[in-house]
Design brief:
The protein has 190 residues and is of the alpha+beta class. The chain contains 8 helices and 5 strands, in the order βαββββααααααα. The protein has a 5-stranded antiparallel sheet with strand order 1-5-4-3-2, with helices on both faces. Strand 4 and strand 5 form a beta hairpin. The longest helix is centred in the last third of the chain and has 20 residues.
């Protein structure tokens, strides 16, 4: 099943999202309650012919609200949604990560990329690599490793192995060691 993801801008109201989904002919189909800590809250919207589903996801793990779009012709629906409501484009996610100079901005940028780039992307991977290996701050390197688990691209495996062997901070090495099995498992499922 095809998927696409759009990270919503923080100043967007739930009513604006609801109005855009209704304008595109989607109908509310139910709510999956989250726990506010690890399990995301989701509002499910479905096309009348049930060929497309949009989940409005409030994910406490990444502290982002995003749209998970699944079904047929998801790129066209994602383009329509992006035109109607303020979301971050893929290019903007990369640019914001590249230009971020403050720790919190870098972490937010990492998680926007983790949500937005479902499929492997070389530019996004390079940002993960730079933040997880080249950053002088161990907290940022650890945040980059944590963000990798959100996508579990198989391409992360050699990078995580390198971090496990060479990172100067024990906490970063431990996080990489904890995440590597998930990345390897995801790689065998594809």
């Amino acid at each position: 099943m095809k998927q696409s993801f759009l990270v919503l801008r923080p100043d967007l109201s739930p009513e604006q999202v609801e109005e855009a989904l209704e304008d595109l002919g989607l109908e509310w189909d139910g709510t999956l309650e989250g726990d506010g800590q690890r399990i995301a809250h989701e509002e499910i919207w479905v096309a009348p012919d049930e060929t497309q589903v949009v989940a409005v996801v409030a994910c406490p793990l990444v502290n982002k609200v995003y749209l998970a779009i699944r079904g047929e012709d998801v790129e066209a629906l994602a383009t329509e949604l992006h035109a109607r409501i303020p979301t971050y484009s893929r290019a903007e996610c990369l640019a914001l990560a590249s230009s971020a100079s403050v720790h919190d901005d870098r972490v937010r940028a990492l998680y926007r990329i983790a949500v937005t780039f479902h499929e492997f992307d070389a530019e996004a991977f390079e940002i993960f690599r730079a933040f997880s290996v080249d950053a002088p701050d161990a907290l940022l390197r650890e945040a980059a490793v944590d963000a990798m688990v959100y996508r579990c691209w198989p391409e992360f495996a050699p990078l995580l192995e390198r971090i496990i062997q060479a990172d100067p901070a024990e906490t970063v090495r431990e996080r990489a060691a904890a995440i590597l099995p998930h990345v390897l498992a995801a790689g065998t499922q594809e």
